[in-house]
User: Fold these one by one.
Assistant:
Number 1:
Amino acid sequence: MFMRIDHVAIACHDLEEKIALFERIFELTVVAREINEEQGVKEAMLHVVDGDGGGSYIQLLEPLSPDTPVGKFLAKRGEGVHHVAFGVPDVTEAMGEIGGRGVRLLDEKPRHGSMGSSIAFLHPKDVGGMLTELVQARPTDQGHNH
Amino acid sequence: MFMRIDHVAIACHDLEEKIALFERIFELTVVAREINEEQGVKEAMLHVVDGDGGGSYIQLLEPLSPDTPVGKFLAKRGEGVHHVAFGVPDVTEAMGEIGGRGVRLLDEKPRHGSMGSSIAFLHPKDVGGMLTELVQARPTDQGHNH
């Protein structure tokens, strides 16, 4: 079912500051920046590695305002891991399979994720307390990431 | 520097219950179980994928007692992501490089990690609030994981 750990997402107060930090201490490179109004975040993807199942990234998330999900997360927990995303071949199929096993889906249908992906979130309480995202890469990227 | 996202570690109250959950909902398989007295945890590695840079896993951690680091984490935050680990070719070298950039190391020298690996932790406050582990796989596993 899972083809890769797609990304680990970190909530932060200042995206540019954290990009500079991660580039400097871990020698990572930003491969995409995006503003996702729907999710209320400004984000960057830092490339870790490519594999047969697609790429792995660190995602940095800065909330667009305090009353967004990531803004509320920061106010409550401070900076740190916000969610973890796993690559799947087909997000709709994976939602059906995992949902059919009693895991609550936070999305009724896939929505727009980073770099043209289709994504859906699972309820953290049904998955060991980890906010979990399923990611289907943009079709043209499937299997051509390295 | 980073060859892979080695694992995402989840702190839990009941290891066997969570293993059964993750096997059932995500079709994952346990490839190693271990008791690490030094770190005060009972743990399991669930295999996600192999790549040129080594394997990626979900690690489940149950504290051996409430007064261990993971026991205290659970009491304070509840179940969820405890740390994230990145694979490096040489953990001592990576500690030197990252430490030289002003990141505090929680370990003075590498210690024993899962499946015969050598590991070291970085101070979360210096790394965006994410407790971060560096992992050098057991020598015989390097590049032979798939």
Number 2:
Amino acid sequence: MPVNYPSEFQGFAITDPKDWANPKLTSFQPKNFEAHDVDIEVECCGICASELFSLKNEWSDAPLKCLSSAYGPKSQVVGHEVVGKVVAVGSDVTLCKVGDRVGLGAQCFSCMECPRCKSGNEQYCPKAVGTYCAKYADGYVSQGGYASHVRAHEHFCFPIPAGLPSELVAPLQCGGLTVYSPIKRNIQGVKDPKVAVIGIGGLGHMAIMISKALGAEVTAISRGYSKKEDATKMGAHHFIATSEEGWENGLADTFDLILNCASSTTALDLDKLLPCLKVNKNFVSVGLPHIGEVFNVRPFTFFSNGCCIGSSKLGNREEIIELMKLAVEHNFRPWVETIKVSEAGVSEGLTRLDKGDVRYRFTLTGFHEFFGTGK
Amino acid sequence: MPVNYPSEFQGFAITDPKDWANPKLTSFQPKNFEAHDVDIEVECCGICASELFSLKNEWSDAPLKCLSSAYGPKSQVVGHEVVGKVVAVGSDVTLCKVGDRVGLGAQCFSCMECPRCKSGNEQYCPKAVGTYCAKYADGYVSQGGYASHVRAHEHFCFPIPAGLPSELVAPLQCGGLTVYSPIKRNIQGVKDPKVAVIGIGGLGHMAIMISKALGAEVTAISRGYSKKEDATKMGAHHFIATSEEGWENGLADTFDLILNCASSTTALDLDKLLPCLKVNKNFVSVGLPHIGEVFNVRPFTFFSNGCCIGSSKLGNREEIIELMKLAVEHNFRPWVETIKVSEAGVSEGLTRLDKGDVRYRFTLTGFHEFFGTGK
């Protein structure tokens, strides 16, 4: 079926979390077009682990939000590592123009007026709206990028430097930014920084490349040795397998940042990991667990070095633009396997990601051919 | 019995944690006198909650360390908020001289050679020795300041400015420094900082005064309203009782630091407290719980602001000297109730502190009269 744009978009949607692995092609009404909105005709879209949590509805105790959307579809399209072409801009848009190639990550709106928006922390704006599964002030529930088009506030449509292939720059929009922001914020101004990256997967493999590009000495930490060769190719200077007894010996007082990119923290031995930090440094989790999971760590564990633990969410516009520039200057690219978009392709990507069968990131491609767009 | 100094010190000691509330007067051998050691003739000594944990042996799963001391007593004297006069200095001592009034806090030794010692973080030196209950490299287990004398490395004997009464400056040596260091480190360079202090007790009441002196707008957080008037007198600009339903309303994105001075974290609702922090700021615990207690908090809780939680231990020499100068310049003093030292006095102080019957800090005084020193 041809896309009836701009009154309708097409995308791959579910209506029940039980069907998370089999989104179906559907047409749906986009949100109302506002003065700062931009329509992106999607060229490709990365597959992020967030999609699994969202489609399975594991980050919420309530029913899927789309079921109570004030207007638009009662079904849910995900996808928030979008690359595409601007095809329409609202009356007040100044940050991009029709024809630009832009990226869109996991956030599509913030208020632009609160202290957080005004201080480069729009990702923590209380009125922030995620690119999918999130309710706008007008009651519409956002629809993501496994679609012909996606609509977003201009602030979250990022200019992509020439020379970066779309399918490789897609994973930077969410996963890349998610690791770039805490790495930069934690090692900025540190002389000869040392960064440990736990979990060599979709997030971790970008964290290694980014840390190295930012000048850090990088230690990759994995359970076993299966990813050692890859980690070295990504740029890790050291590799540690925590299955090895005594792995922590000699690592006390070493790191300026430990970035946890594993999706769960419960499997981690924080009593061994935290003492590897230098004094007053941070252990930051970006891999998102089930909503009920807890950090299980004793206040006493922190006394060896006065360290802290926490989590970090996405990053700001300036940071994603910096990150893409860094990728050009240091010539690193996410390791991407592409899958042609279709119901079968989306299903394959989600199912294989759920099994961990990806090294290290999927990008869905071929949107123009599938949706008959790109003309 | 007269003190047989310098071959013996006298102090109030226990041999069994069951007797924690009734230390007995005893004579004991001090550690061997090294080139950087200083002997302090004690004038007065604060009572810190650490003493309760140590005497009850609640910070350890092993028997009292003194029972395996390589030499010296098989009994334990506590006390680590000491003020007294230098009566002997080792051959290499340059930081103080006989006759000086000095303070000694919870640490009596560090290696002076490791990266932490060389970067103003000697409190996190892997070879640090606590003022009591801690084993020196030579196997001696340190003995504290409920005593006629105490022996410590010169680096931890701090010059006390004239004009600060000894019984009021004693609580600064451990408790004061413990809150000063994280307050300073977390609000340094922040414009118009806002600090929340949880727990208006021995640590918290000093944290309020110190935060205010450092230029912060201070919010005192307590369970009920019983300490509201006191908190205001200490300098708190705002007061919150968490027994009040909806206490957290309007506090999102407010604080640059939440300092937890309560001795337990399990009673705290971190899901409500952490969102009160500004972006990327810290919740720091200094009140020490039972060794088995855990932080129970979800990674998701941190996503509203990218905050972190952790603990902080003591502070460095420079910080305690700064703190005492600040107390002079801003004319604040800990709120102290004095108790004359004796077996009965020590027992009264420990027992009342255990019940929380103190506003807000005890200092044991009258050491000269009791031990026949000070001549």
Number 3:
Amino acid sequence: MRVLGVDPGLTRCGVGVVEGVAGRPLTMRGVGVVRTPVDAELGLRLVAIEQGIERWLDEHEPEFVAVERVFSQHNVRTVMGTAQASAVAMLCAARRGIPVALHTPSEVKAAVTGNGRADKAQVGAMVTRLLRLDAPPKPADAADALALAICHIWRAPAQNRIQRAVAQNRLQQAAALHASKLASKGRTA
Amino acid sequence: MRVLGVDPGLTRCGVGVVEGVAGRPLTMRGVGVVRTPVDAELGLRLVAIEQGIERWLDEHEPEFVAVERVFSQHNVRTVMGTAQASAVAMLCAARRGIPVALHTPSEVKAAVTGNGRADKAQVGAMVTRLLRLDAPPKPADAADALALAICHIWRAPAQNRIQRAVAQNRLQQAAALHASKLASKGRTA
């Protein structure tokens, strides 16, 4: 199973690809960060994130995309950007028929370290060990993306198989439903 | 000037196209709602919104897209969906090189009714009058989308001209910058 993990953000969007199955050693296929300039217009930043995610999907052809679930208890301004970046990542995956899974930060920490409130250093150390890397991936967003992918591989493998089997079918149904609704709702003066 | 207004939402995304210039009567070119099923997966809902917005851009070829600026003082769950739907609308516009403007709800209400705290009925009544319609557009999301477009036409026409002139140029710059950054940041195992 090959999974692209995405730690969404407007300024730094962590991405990491992990391959393997639960119960066996995992392999890192790639890790990086999609960055956008802080002073660019929001629409253009979203376009840059889309282009970045598309490249990772093209290059690694993941079977699943795991995205961090966004909460809003954090800083309001940051959360909006995170929600928007995550929307672009989910959109890129879903329109290719790749199933998207959302995992909360505490689910990811618990999966990788055994502690849902582990700090960044601990997550980085476990990612390094589990993927047999020479050093923790930097920045933290990149390590978090790999942790997301590991978490996804380890959680509910049976559910993953079912989800993948129906994802293509659902995509076609949703498109057909949308087309028929749009035809009946839209009117032009 | 032809403007597509978008009142973003996951369940109902209001869209409306208005043509005209400040100081002259305005004309509605189209109004509608892009809907997505509440029980569908989030990724597929975003794909459906993308397809809907793309159709409106194809059909009406707006010179500007005006999107409601999302705040987070409202219901947390709703705000996340609104932020994600708005990201898709901004992405669709920006990757075509169409400038995107964000207006707050109170800016829109003030522009259309003279009162930044006007209620939905008042906004609907003024949209009906300003666009010389037979009845207020329904649902309220559709009327709000038209109000956004009107607001954009009336605010800062000079700024609009400048923004349009540089939008294409910026899009190319952002893509080039992104490509060079990605090349230097990403590494593959």
Number 4:
Amino acid sequence: VWQKETGVREPKVHEWIRSLSPGADHVEWQNVDVTLLGVPLSRSSISASAASETPHAMRQAWKGFVPYNLDYDVDLTPLNVVDLGDVKQHVTDIAWSHKAITDAMYAMRTHHPNTFPLALGGDHSITAMLVKGWKKAHPDERIGILQLDTHFDLRSLKDNGPSNGTPIRNLIESGTIKGEDVWNIGLHGFFNAKSLKEYADRAGIRYVTMRRARQRGLDAVIQEALLDLKRRVDTVYVTVDMDVLDIAYGPGAPATTPGGMQTDELFTAVTAAGRDPHVKAMDIVCLDPHKDVAQATVKAGVHTMLSFLTGFYLRQHD
Amino acid sequence: VWQKETGVREPKVHEWIRSLSPGADHVEWQNVDVTLLGVPLSRSSISASAASETPHAMRQAWKGFVPYNLDYDVDLTPLNVVDLGDVKQHVTDIAWSHKAITDAMYAMRTHHPNTFPLALGGDHSITAMLVKGWKKAHPDERIGILQLDTHFDLRSLKDNGPSNGTPIRNLIESGTIKGEDVWNIGLHGFFNAKSLKEYADRAGIRYVTMRRARQRGLDAVIQEALLDLKRRVDTVYVTVDMDVLDIAYGPGAPATTPGGMQTDELFTAVTAAGRDPHVKAMDIVCLDPHKDVAQATVKAGVHTMLSFLTGFYLRQHD
Amino acid sequence: VWQKETGVREPKVHEWIRSLSPGADHVEWQNVDVTLLGVPLSRSSISASAASETPHAMRQAWKGFVPYNLDYDVDLTPLNVVDLGDVKQHVTDIAWSHKAITDAMYAMRTHHPNTFPLALGGDHSITAMLVKGWKKAHPDERIGILQLDTHFDLRSLKDNGPSNGTPIRNLIESGTIKGEDVWNIGLHGFFNAKSLKEYADRAGIRYVTMRRARQRGLDAVIQEALLDLKRRVDTVYVTVDMDVLDIAYGPGAPATTPGGMQTDELFTAVTAAGRDPHVKAMDIVCLDPHKDVAQATVKAGVHTMLSFLTGFYLRQHD
Amino acid sequence: VWQKETGVREPKVHEWIRSLSPGADHVEWQNVDVTLLGVPLSRSSISASAASETPHAMRQAWKGFVPYNLDYDVDLTPLNVVDLGDVKQHVTDIAWSHKAITDAMYAMRTHHPNTFPLALGGDHSITAMLVKGWKKAHPDERIGILQLDTHFDLRSLKDNGPSNGTPIRNLIESGTIKGEDVWNIGLHGFFNAKSLKEYADRAGIRYVTMRRARQRGLDAVIQEALLDLKRRVDTVYVTVDMDVLDIAYGPGAPATTPGGMQTDELFTAVTAAGRDPHVKAMDIVCLDPHKDVAQATVKAGVHTMLSFLTGFYLRQHD
Amino acid sequence: VWQKETGVREPKVHEWIRSLSPGADHVEWQNVDVTLLGVPLSRSSISASAASETPHAMRQAWKGFVPYNLDYDVDLTPLNVVDLGDVKQHVTDIAWSHKAITDAMYAMRTHHPNTFPLALGGDHSITAMLVKGWKKAHPDERIGILQLDTHFDLRSLKDNGPSNGTPIRNLIESGTIKGEDVWNIGLHGFFNAKSLKEYADRAGIRYVTMRRARQRGLDAVIQEALLDLKRRVDTVYVTVDMDVLDIAYGPGAPATTPGGMQTDELFTAVTAAGRDPHVKAMDIVCLDPHKDVAQATVKAGVHTMLSFLTGFYLRQHD
Amino acid sequence: VWQKETGVREPKVHEWIRSLSPGADHVEWQNVDVTLLGVPLSRSSISASAASETPHAMRQAWKGFVPYNLDYDVDLTPLNVVDLGDVKQHVTDIAWSHKAITDAMYAMRTHHPNTFPLALGGDHSITAMLVKGWKKAHPDERIGILQLDTHFDLRSLKDNGPSNGTPIRNLIESGTIKGEDVWNIGLHGFFNAKSLKEYADRAGIRYVTMRRARQRGLDAVIQEALLDLKRRVDTVYVTVDMDVLDIAYGPGAPATTPGGMQTDELFTAVTAAGRDPHVKAMDIVCLDPHKDVAQATVKAGVHTMLSFLTGFYLRQHD
Ligand SMILES: [Ca+2]
Ligand SMILES: [Ca+2]
Ligand SMILES: [Ca+2]
Ligand SMILES: [Ca+2]
Ligand SMILES: [Ca+2]
Ligand SMILES: [Ca+2]
Ligand SMILES: [Ca+2]
Ligand SMILES: [Ca+2]
Ligand SMILES: [Ca+2]
Ligand SMILES: [Ca+2]
Ligand SMILES: [Ca+2]
Ligand SMILES: [Ca+2]
């Protein structure tokens, strides 16, 4: 008589992704393909944001998805994906929280280097922390960034510290990455001060505006970026700022604007990125579920994650 | 580094209420004071309703409540409350679903007669099914109903079967209860056809309109109703239709109207009802979380449940 | 097989109120108790308003009401109520529209003087036009105003013509009424310039703030106002500005504020007004359905109309 | 003075479509080109849905459309379209409602076989019932389905009966149609379990994912599907599940997702379908007006109907 | 300690655009490139509209934009843009307001003929008034109109005066422009009566539907229109009715529909128009901020203005 | 022709309150009665909050209020009120922001001790900082707190630092105030852990639950609290957490609940507090404009400020 989740033969996404207790020692880590980690930090955002609610919101929303991608005829269930829950955060000490994020990535790379880390933000400040954690674990690696974003994220850290407007500059100025190893795709419109574009040029950052990316096709642009990066770097880190979406498609990203990317373009882009073995980590950031309309952006966030995993599956099986 | 629910000394409501697996045989049922059962049925509603989402929405919402009532200085944690999950429902066979609800109450009363059943609807059609389940388990008991509602729920079953407009008539016409053993408090306005009022009069139903109840005080009216019922019945079943609330307080009840009850009046009423040992079962119905504004009605639903449990605690400890 | 409105024995409000074609000559006007007229004008509002949508919105909403008032045990169906539709309005010539409103009331009073006119605005500018129409038809009558409003509506017509901030001043300065024959009940807070209050004092307008009205009870205050007016005037015109409601109860009135009237107080007030035979016309204004939340204000508007009609019924049958 | 609908020379959609009383015997049925029938059933939906409100919502919304298509320079008014109102539905007996839908189509085909039936759902469960009604009237015809949908609708009926997840399977398993005579266009993403895709393959169902359909153009894909179907079937039934739309374009379809169809693609598709004389019936389903944003989806539903009728006009006049 | 706007080196849009007091005599008008004028009139709209709020809403929203266009690598700050505030409007005398708008444009052209006037509506009725003001100042000029709109705006003025459905007809019938000098791009769907299309044909108006414009590319269509107009006219006036946008992109335009323009298409179109020296004035109309969702349409309005100014900059510097 | 703010005789609130530049040396500080300071900090909130937007939102909203209180016939314009703008805040260093808040209050008290400071939060963490600033300026004063709140705000600072759940404990544990000098009025329901109530009892904090406060009348309870505090303390600091409001009245306070205070009760309470000369500072906190419905809570916040100032005026003139 009682309706309870029962073991179904064919799982929904939340039945396929395993939720692990932190201290669970029975995990056969060598078999884990991908680990998800929530990073519920958004008090480091310039404008008020509830991006901290995104890990929870995405976990709720993916109950409505199945791990089979009809567009590519790809069944994701052979992938072993575990969800480690959220990195612990502090209410009033942002520096403490940032360090915990770096530590989490460092711990992942040190203890479980064979699994692909996929972080669910949180705001964009976490990307600097995650990449630093990677660098700390792999000090000799050269790291490249493939960024989908409306913004450069090159604001000065002197003004307001490591906020969500600064991660790329943070990584460059800390010597974690080189400017020339950053590709930003999807920037557009009137949302980046000219001085930031000049900083980008000086630093050698590569970028393709939305208009140009659409003319050439997102898939082709991603290919070019990866080809270029692979010539120089060991690891490509993919970071998706959901505000790269057009406001019609991503109303729930705090800084979303007209003239942005469509969701099908975004899904194509991350699927392409997922296929490339040089891509070794990823995050999805700056999605505020409280601002969402009809749950469109949260669903787009989940779809982005699953599209990337489709590519990830294909890199192993194509 | 990982943020996971850890054993906290002082629980939130969701840490205090235990969630039981259906077949769990380790429950010491003799120690269980209250069992919660979700009844996610609303396809039996006259108008489109997502009241089926209420059990889930309330479980999510009570994570924001603590089991301590400051108004009455009552700590609920000594109460042993278990949540059995949802009664299984069918998508296209409403009669099947209705039978499952009756069966669930019957099973509860047969196997665990010492625990107080508290059902979370679902629409008001479930009340008829739950009371029938009680009657089946206790055929010799005379059952009275204390109903808080904007409506009589006395529509004819001939028109459209056991919909949410019919539960009281259903119970009377099936011989489960007598009309004179029904007290309806909080009716008001232009939402009951005159013929239903005439039916109520013929059936001997007692009712106090919102206007009169407010003039005399909800607490006093509830006392009078219970006093009257106790003279005749063995068991009082309390049913709270959330549309008894004024639309300013309960925008998320599908048929909510202006001129209704305020939440503080409702909480006073159910606390009073909870204190009376003749009250032996309860339900909360007709709350549609999809229609809610600022989560006001879902929170009011949880508050109603906890206020009733405050009274329930006091009946044992005063 | 086809579901169409069929003749039901017990009508909903829209089945009880008859909708008349304009030129219908078969109406037995001597039997008509009340005529409804929509006045879909709100381009005369100081702030942007869709109050012009209210007649349509109320007609849709009252399909959810029955013509039986449970609080007073009053069946409204013996009242003969007809809905004449909307007064024709012009898109860009507000003076033309205002004249049409005056003409409509004049025509009603001239041709069908035995029926009670109840206008559904539109914004408050229409009250001046309707009362002028009455005065034109009954030039010897002394007319008093019973106004439920957050505002005095005494702004100067020199600034911006006969807008919704001016009807009472318009009536006084045009000699249609005397200031001493105005009672305003429910004003409150920081929403009337001091100079308007001084104008009110100079003009002899009587007013009772919300705070004081609540202390004494709306019913008693209405009685006092009517008693006072009846000593002097032949006709009392009742005008209900829905922004008299507290913003929690009337979010859909453009200028609604905190600290206002509750709906049960408003219903009590208009029921009391309806009982008095000196009350000979009424309007309900300044409700913007596009701004409404959960349809609370539109429902409150319908409830206000039906509560007044309850009183109207009782004036004939008590 | 009174503003009432007057006979205008150039009609709006609601003035062009005639609303017929059920028993009207004066209809010259031989001249009727298209009949609309509302099917207000959504209690058969897996998730809570108010798709039952769609017939009413579309009738209200099309008052804002004119029957002239500027994109194709097509005046629809020569088409004789009548609206028969809604098929009667039962509140608690879904099987009864389903039978009434089959009966309605059967009656249409038997009594008025020269008119094109266009049904406005309701949820997708109605498609199975409507096609069965057709089959009953034309037992010798071979029927093909052209489905625009995010989903296969191939769930097992054993689990939960003929819900909105099952219509295509229902038709195949009941022998009403053959799997090979189904074309589904617009499926995408992570919303169909792999087992359903495998069922589709086994049954010989043809499908084109959204990604592929966009690459080739919706018009071309529709042509190919029709060409293929026409080789085998007598009648093509077009069913449009509004959740085929991207969530940015169709927020008011309960299961709408990112990555879906754009409205201009949908309008192109149904215009193409309307042109083909093999297309002999159509429905539009799974649109929940209560979930809509800015009325975008309801307007898209009306536009879909009128675009189809544009094609229907052109099939006769090209 | 106090946070106040301080002189920043790199301005936001609101720091770049200068806000001038009306009587400021220190303006070096010969250096002013562009003047903005708000026209807060929407009581002349057929349907209730708060387009009067748009000038204020856009001024608030552009605080979130910077005057650097990344897509074109154009820094707008060399342009000298001043905001003159709003044209004074009357609450109840629409003719007075319309005259004030004509006077404002006439005054601009007479006193400051070297500056480009860019008006922020208000509803579309203002376009007729602005163009008449231009004509009055330049009686010998032949003026062409480049209109982006879902509608022809050719309704008869006899019905309801110079409402927002009439500006193009108003200009033609008043002899201000010739029909053949009007290009309307982006019309679509079922939103223009056939008689208006016939009027357009008789008057020689040129138009390209949305479907055809998309097939050929907005940029190419704009070029063709300008090329054609330049052969005949002295001045091209650009008017952007925001309801040309698809409802998914422009939910905040009162008459917005499915099947319309995407924002990137609109930005491309106005950038192209801005480049042409024959374009000498512009307005943006029919945007209702109260109806907006996620501020998408207001942001699109600002982006439209800035995209046009990008083209305007390029006409001087390419 | 241009509509610009002109010098009006009778001011709105924003014309009465003067906005001062930080370094303005021409202020005659001895004549300033009240200074407003915005404190846009909410990244110290336990849950995501945009309370940082409140100072801006309130400044926008009070343009709709006039400085005349009709309920009390009090003209506020004789009061000299200046708005100093916002205390500077840091994006990622909360401790820095907290110190700036303390410094701001210290500077106010040191340089302009004759003016009454009224702070507009921000979240409740700022109260601890403001009171510490006062204490630093007046080390010998004994300070009492009159708190209107749903919560005790007594959480341990060890867990997460000086968040919005801790200000009262912060002040007690830092020795700034004594527990016995705190009166909390309006607490209710299930929103305070029992351990916090026990801490309150141990610390000697006085509190009156909402239920009891309503029974006795807010005015009387405030009087009693002030009478008690005045016996011991030199200065009473009033802090209003907007979540003390019932969720029907204050949907825009992040932690608002059913069963809370009504706005008229709140306005009565703060008017009473304003009258008492021992009350020397005030703040309004925890209002999130992004969560608001129909602007009800922001308007209530402004009304709270003006009601307090009404009392403040009366303390000088009664
Ligand atoms: Ca960004
Ligand atoms: Ca970013
Ligand atoms: Ca009920
Ligand atoms: Ca009810
Ligand atoms: Ca008024
Ligand atoms: Ca008013
Ligand atoms: Ca579907
Ligand atoms: Ca389907
Ligand atoms: Ca237009
Ligand atoms: Ca238009
Ligand atoms: Ca607090
Ligand atoms: Ca609080």
